[in-house]
Write a structure and sequence with these properties.
Length: 149
């Protein structure tokens, strides 16, 4: 599980080291490393990631960009992608495009878009619902049996 830059890391693991995961949870992720600088505040991240408009940086970014490294002949572990309608830090397009491309290659992927939150902030009720969905996904993927009374 990873959120924001952690979501980028999990996206990278999904596309490069898939065999280490039984499932993946990605929240508010930066996943398109060739267009991040054109969305919202992404231009401010160029010093951190590199400039996709610079051919040298672009070649490097393309090697690990999760969105661009989804393969057709790979069996992906189940993936849950979380995003928030009011995320003004990381554009929703990262999550939407990633999920669409994964679906195109037949991956088991779910998208959860929260209408009442943004990049990190949310009310306790929203967080309870979000983490309930995260735990339900993890329990299903890991085949955890919960005993009830």
């Amino acid at each position: 599980m990873g959120i924001s830059n952690g979501g980028l890391l999990v996206g990278l693991v999904i596309t490069k080291e898939l065999e280490v995961l039984d499932g993946a949870i990605i929240g508010c992720p930066v996943l398109d490393m060739l267009r991040f600088h054109k969305l919202y505040i992404g231009k401010a991240w160029v010093p951190e990631y590199g400039n996709p408009d610079d051919p040298k940086d672009r070649r490097f970014l393309l090697k690990y960009s999760p969105y661009h490294n989804i393969s057709i002949n790979v069996r992906y572990s189940p993936i849950l992608v979380l995003t928030g309608l009011h995320d003004y830090h990381v554009r929703l397009a990262h999550a939407f495009k990633f999920v669409a491309r994964l679906r195109d290659v037949g991956a088991k992927v779910c998208l959860r878009m929260e209408k009442l939150s943004g990049h990190a902030g949310a009310s306790i009720n929203v967080k309870i619902r979000e983490y309930s969905d995260i735990l339900a996904f993890a329990y299903k993927v890991l085949e955890v049996n919960v005993k009830t009374r």
